[in-house]
Amino acid sequence: QMMGPKGFVYMGRIIMLLFGTAKEGGSTSSPSQGSTCMPKTHVVFLKVHKSASSTVMNILFRFGDTRNLSFALPSNGATQLFYPHYFTAAAVQGFSPKKDPQFHIMCHHMRFFQPEVARVMPNTSFYFSILRNPIHLMESSFAYYKGSSAFAKAKNLEEFLNDTSKFYSASTSDSQYAKNLMTFDFGYNHNGNFSAKNVQLMLRAIEAQFDLLLISEYFDESMVLLKEALCWDLDDVVSFPLNSRDNSSKSHLSKDTIEKIKSWNKSDWELYVHFNRTFWEKIDGHMGRERMQQEVRALQQKREQLAKICLQEGGSVAPMKIADPALAPLQYGKAKILGYNIKPGLDRATRQMCQHLVTPELQYSSLLYRKQFPQKTLTPRNPAHLPNLYNRRAV
Questions:
Q1: For this UniProt entry, which residues form the secretion signal (predicted)?
Q2: What is the pLDDT of residue 12?
Q3: Which residue in 9, 32, 35, 237 has a CA-CA distance of 20 to 30 Å to 175?
């Protein structure tokens, strides 16, 4: 039985270290093919770091923007919801404890705490997130968060893993970037006791709270599964990859390093293995592999068509080749984040559609903030000059 949100808050947040609450409302099954279902418009997306989540965020931005839906946006134009602290409803612009939950979409970075989310979002909201293989995630994190406390003095990821006690301190405020990052984002102790019992408690709690867990390594299959669960159209989930790195900044990992990553990120590894299995079980149970392959092909064709219409080079380009500064993604750490150039000569409607597809999250978040809160004024800032990742003011 689910305890009310206020009761959870009163008891204290430490219960999230081991226990979860069954979320209210939301469907755990996908609509069957040919069924008449209503598109879901109340959506909570836990934006896990470095897991193709920026691309998913863009999909949600565009869906809500074109339908004039309301977003649970960070206060004062910040770009994260009180991260790395536990999410609190007070971090949302326009939230009032005197009003019923009134927002449609929540999708900015946060450290998940369901009782506080439930104060902001209706109890019928659809909760989902996306996971990434911890091997790839840590390699990406080392490049992107090279300036973090744990990684700053390590020459490479191998050196860090060979002597973690030398570089890693659990007490630093940014330690999550170097160990069990997904576990942390879901609201659990990334330095905790990962006994089989505790891991099972965590998995059961996440299953109770979330309607769907997607897998970034199977991004197209994930988007098909998402559109089925939300009763959206294929056009709603088509996208271009955002916040992705140039291959030149990616590192090859030895078998020994891979095993050390799995061991060091034990909780994340258990999380990924479990939900990778349930991901394919959902596909088999709800639509089958053959229909999934057909939908994936259709989605890929739509992406290729949009690329021919929108993109000057037909795909992504290196940071120095991005012509429009408004479409330039934030460059951070040692990662080289790719971007896009839009074809010239497009009519206004087509250009706007293309622009929304490739607008980085900081810029798009700022646009939505100005649209939703026109009375608020923000001082524009160059994202390249922003000092850290915590609660940045949008561009």
A1: 1-27
A2: 36
A3: 9
Q: Residues 27-53: pLDDT tens digits?
A: 333 444 455 899 999 999 999 999 999
Whether the model pTM is above 0.85:
yes
Strand order in the sheet with 43-46: 105-106, 43-46, 126-131, 212-215
Query: How many domains are there within the chain?
Result: 1
Position 253 in a domain: yes
CATH code of the domain in which 239 resides: 3.40.50
Please tell me whether residue 257 adopts helix, strand or coil conformation.
Answer: helix
pLDDT value for 335: 78
* DSSP for 59-117, written as a single string: HHHHHHHHTT--B-PBGGGBSBSSTTSBP-GGGBTT--TTS----SEE-SB-B--HHHH
Phi, psi at 87, each rounded to 5° = -60, 140
Residue 66 counted as domain residue: yes
Sorting pLDDT into bands at 50, 70 and 90, what band is 224?
A: very high
pLDDT level of residue 234 (50, 70, 90 thresholds): very high
